[in-house]
Amino acid sequence: MAAGQGAFSLREVLAAFQTFLHSLGAIFSFVSKDAVAKVQIMENYCCGEQREKYVSLQSMVEYELANGLVDIQKRSGRPDSGCRTVLRLHRALRWLQLFLEGLRTGREDSRTSVICTDSYNASLATYHPWVVRKAATVAFCTLPSRNAFLEIMNVGTTEEAVTVLGEALPYICDVYGITQELFARHKLLDLP
């Protein structure tokens, strides 16, 4: 995935994000619908008129900042920038990272709803209004047990699913870390 020092292909990351969302299934449709819409926005940038500027996260940030495409102060009538859209995906990736790590390390009798709620509260909840936080918490209560959830992921037995998570999480952590550092350096972590 890495292309140079800490650079990675936006298209590869978007494809991986879609794969993970798909593997979580319909149970997380309330999260995945929004994320899929944001992935589509980014795919449009990656295939659009300025596609050469959207080859990597780094090239996108440089291009959008240099051309005044990032609305840093407040939301205007202009379309969502790639930076703002990636920031929303970045926050969702943090939730996914925490959730999958909780599933991977949880005991067999762990409650998925608790793992999911804890992951949400440590990541996305900060950015959501009260009504969305409450709706998410209620939705999490409908999640099956950890082992049943791992089976729903459809990657094999519970043990095989834990192994797959163990293999995938370092990549998720790398993408999250690179994005976090880049956005922090350019003061993009608090875009409206």
Cα Rg: 17 Å
- What is the strand content? under 5%
Query: Which sequence of SSEs, written as H and E, runs from N to C?
Result: HHHHHHHH
Structural class by helix and strand composition: mainly alpha
Instruction: Report mean pLDDT, rounded to a whole number.
Output: 87
Largest sheet: none
Shape: globular
Low-confidence stretches: none
The helix content, as a percent range, equals: 55-70%
Number of strands: 0
Q: Helical region count?
A: 8
Distance between the termini: 29 Å
Notes on the protein architecture:
The mean pLDDT is 87. This protein has helices at residues 10-24, 29-47, 57-66, 82-105, 112-121, 130-140, 146-152, 158-185. The protein has eight helices and no strands. Helix 2 (29-47) crosses helix 4. The chain has 192 residues and is mostly helical. It is globular and about 50 Å long. The longest helix is centred in the C-terminal third of the chain and has 28 residues, at 158-185.
Set down the secondary structure blueprint:
Blueprint: H1 10-24, H2 29-47, H3 57-66, H4 82-105, H5 112-121, H6 130-140, H7 146-152, H8 158-185
Helix pairs in contact: 1-2, 2-4, 4-5, 4-8
